[in-house]
Amino acid sequence: MANVNDMESVSLFDGDLLTDIDYSKGKCNLNEYGISPANPGEDLCMRPLCTDDFDKDFIELLSQLTKVGDITREKFLKRFHGMLANEGTYYIIVVENLKLRKLVACGSLIVEQKFIHDTAVRGRIEDIVVDDSIRGQRIGKLIVETLLLLSEKLGCYKTSLECRDPLLPFYSKFGFVAESQQNHLCKRFFH
């Protein structure tokens, strides 16, 4: 059996999808801040989640957002490959500090296949987190803008997200609005 460290890293999706996005369609003018997917900042790289990101503190990064649990490498790889098998559904982007070989930001786009709207697809943005060490560098804006434009490129008829009240002004900059006649309800089975 091959050593996990000797195996070639596998990406969750084709990284060319990120470079082919037309950022001029976005609501936030990222160029005025001097950042882009190709250049998110000094020593930073934006790309799809990869199999070797377990060793780059992906789980620790997510724990800044919510309770994660005891995720072993085996659990991480099993979930990763399950997502990979559902091609066209999961798009997790990460920002890596290349000097530290550590992930410092991430966000997810989940694409649902629907029967409504002529068998359309719908996007959901989740798990946006930026490490405390790089907050204020507009990396969160870059991730959200990228995921929104990617959802449009993939043909989503709408894209939604959930957020706490203090984050409403941040997400409204991207064109997100509360839908007046709908309530978001949730039933949790685990805490």
UniProtKB/TrEMBL annotation:
<keyword id="KW-0012">Acyltransferase</keyword>
<comment type="similarity">
    <text>Belongs to the acetyltransferase family. GNA1 subfamily.</text>
</comment>
<dbReference type="InterPro" id="IPR039143">
    <property type="entry name" value="GNPNAT1-like"/>
</dbReference>
<protein>
    <recommendedName>
        <fullName>Glucosamine 6-phosphate N-acetyltransferase</fullName>
        <ecNumber>2.3.1.4</ecNumber>
    </recommendedName>
</protein>
<dbReference type="InterPro" id="IPR000182">
    <property type="entry name" value="GNAT_dom"/>
</dbReference>
<dbReference type="Pfam" id="PF00583">
    <property type="entry name" value="Acetyltransf_1"/>
</dbReference>
<dbReference type="GO" id="GO:0004343">
    <property type="term" value="F:glucosamine 6-phosphate N-acetyltransferase activity"/>
</dbReference>
<dbReference type="GO" id="GO:0006048">
    <property type="term" value="P:UDP-N-acetylglucosamine biosynthetic process"/>
</dbReference>
<feature type="domain" description="N-acetyltransferase">
    <location>
        <begin position="44"/>
        <end position="191"/>
    </location>
</feature>
<dbReference type="InterPro" id="IPR016181">
    <property type="entry name" value="Acyl_CoA_acyltransferase"/>
</dbReference>
<keyword id="KW-0808">Transferase</keyword>
<comment type="pathway">
    <text>Nucleotide-sugar biosynthesis; UDP-N-acetyl-alpha-D-glucosamine biosynthesis; N-acetyl-alpha-D-glucosamine 1-phosphate from alpha-D-glucosamine 6-phosphate (route I): step 1/2.</text>
</comment>
